[in-house]
Amino acid sequence: MTPNPWRVFWGLLEHDLLITRKQLGGVLAQVLMQPLLMLLVFGKVLGALGYTPPGYARLLLPGLVALNAFFAAAQNASFPLAMEFATRTIENRLRAPVPLGWIVVERIFAAASRGLVTAVLMVPVGALVLGDLSWRTAGIPAAFGYTALGALAGGAVGTTIGSLVAPARIGITFSLVMPPLLFTGSAQFPFPELDAVPWFRALCALNPMTYVSEGLRGALTPRIAHLPAWLCVTGLAVALLVFTPASLWTFRRRAIT
């Protein structure tokens, strides 16, 4: 009898979530440090010195939550996957009695779960640093939806990179690709206010993280300039429609070589 693909999918996902739980301390230390320092320096220290405008930390924190959702998922998809291909331990997963697409989607969901956890944990860290979030509580469900979509998009991007790049080059590739994504993801500034630099605005529009940052600002801090909700959802949907098939193509190409 052919196993139910859903049961196999959930079995693989439960295995990866168990590993995530065991490694949670290291994962959090790895992915929370940079956003925490950015919030502390740009949100508190420079504000106290008068170099950033009042309320800048309130603008910055939703962007850092978006950064954690997207980058933690991308990082935790790309590096382990590259190592599994290098050591051929991926073959254990390829023997699962499901089509290859199920394995790829499971990896995206597993990576997204890490991104979602680190994004959610950024909220109490931000509250501890800033003291008062002043968020619109009615927007929390929508904010959670944007965060989940951003984590899935990051997982798809990371799976594409992890199955495309050779293990010896994954570190340098990540260091070359991720900083531009970080600084064009509208985490530190509102996208609608980039009219003065149209070339940079165009770069930010191509970055899926922009739509997570803007969606979170619209849901939690609506008084700050932000993109409309429909455009944020559309941008994230397009990212998933592009990178999910791309991750499947690169994974299949790598798996059969």
Automatic annotation (TrEMBL):
<keyword id="KW-0812">Transmembrane</keyword>
<feature type="transmembrane region" description="Helical">
    <location>
        <begin position="143"/>
        <end position="165"/>
    </location>
</feature>
<dbReference type="Pfam" id="PF01061">
    <property type="entry name" value="ABC2_membrane"/>
</dbReference>
<feature type="transmembrane region" description="Helical">
    <location>
        <begin position="227"/>
        <end position="251"/>
    </location>
</feature>
<keyword id="KW-0813">Transport</keyword>
<dbReference type="InterPro" id="IPR013525">
    <property type="entry name" value="ABC2_TM"/>
</dbReference>
<feature type="transmembrane region" description="Helical">
    <location>
        <begin position="108"/>
        <end position="131"/>
    </location>
</feature>
<keyword id="KW-1003">Cell membrane</keyword>
<feature type="transmembrane region" description="Helical">
    <location>
        <begin position="64"/>
        <end position="87"/>
    </location>
</feature>
<keyword id="KW-1133">Transmembrane helix</keyword>
<dbReference type="InterPro" id="IPR047817">
    <property type="entry name" value="ABC2_TM_bact-type"/>
</dbReference>
<dbReference type="InterPro" id="IPR051784">
    <property type="entry name" value="Nod_factor_ABC_transporter"/>
</dbReference>
<dbReference type="InterPro" id="IPR000412">
    <property type="entry name" value="ABC_2_transport"/>
</dbReference>
<feature type="transmembrane region" description="Helical">
    <location>
        <begin position="31"/>
        <end position="52"/>
    </location>
</feature>
<protein>
    <recommendedName>
        <fullName>Transport permease protein</fullName>
    </recommendedName>
</protein>
<comment type="similarity">
    <text>Belongs to the ABC-2 integral membrane protein family.</text>
</comment>
<keyword id="KW-0046">Antibiotic resistance</keyword>
<keyword id="KW-0472">Membrane</keyword>
<feature type="domain" description="ABC transmembrane type-2">
    <location>
        <begin position="26"/>
        <end position="254"/>
    </location>
</feature>
